[in-house]
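INFO  loader      accepted 1 record
INFO  loader      residues=233
INFO  predictor   begin
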Amino acid sequence: MTNWLDRILYNLLPGRCVLCLSPTKRSIDICIGCELDLPFSHYACWQCGLTLPESQELCGHCLVSPPPFSHCFAAFEYRPPMDKMIAQFKNSQQLAFGRVLSKILARQYIKHHLRYPDVWVPVPLHSERLKIRGFNQALEIAQVIAAETATPVIGRACRRIKATDEQKLLSRHARKHNISGAFVCETDFQNARVGIIDDVVTTTETVAELSRVLVKQGAADVQVVCIARTPHQ
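INFO  predictor   done
INFO  writer      dumping tokens
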């Protein structure tokens, strides 16, 4: 749902597009032209979110070896300018980019789903990474989606106890080893439908590991929602 106060404030003080810097005249800091140029994800595997031809519902890998989560939804494919926008958000503390992308993600998610999870859980950062970055980008995204879906977010449901290397720098095999045992959770999710929130899903190793932890804590179903999904390499 769009906040009525946001609409009034944007009418009085129109924002500027985070990409072209022109006045947006909208209740979001991106102009309609720049938004339409973004790489929206149109056809994807229902389970892992990987881009697929229009006629397919599941990719071959999920048919043979399904992940521990039931669904992955991404608003965009991770390609320009999405890579720079997300980097500005989480590495340069340009939170305006995060708010724009989170609002579009929430809008797209609501458009394609009639039923929401019972609770949102952001992928946690290790304490050392959190000190360096100053905020958890997944929590920032989750708070926007929680407000738009009227679904609570539990920001400290899980902890990251392993200071892993950056997943994007590793091979698929190395990523799986790197993330193994990285999360702990003491929250009881008995019979709850849980939605994991992250910024980018690349090989799904991180969200798969967190999903396994949530299932052990009683989650009846786990789905993943992210801003962008990396296309198949």
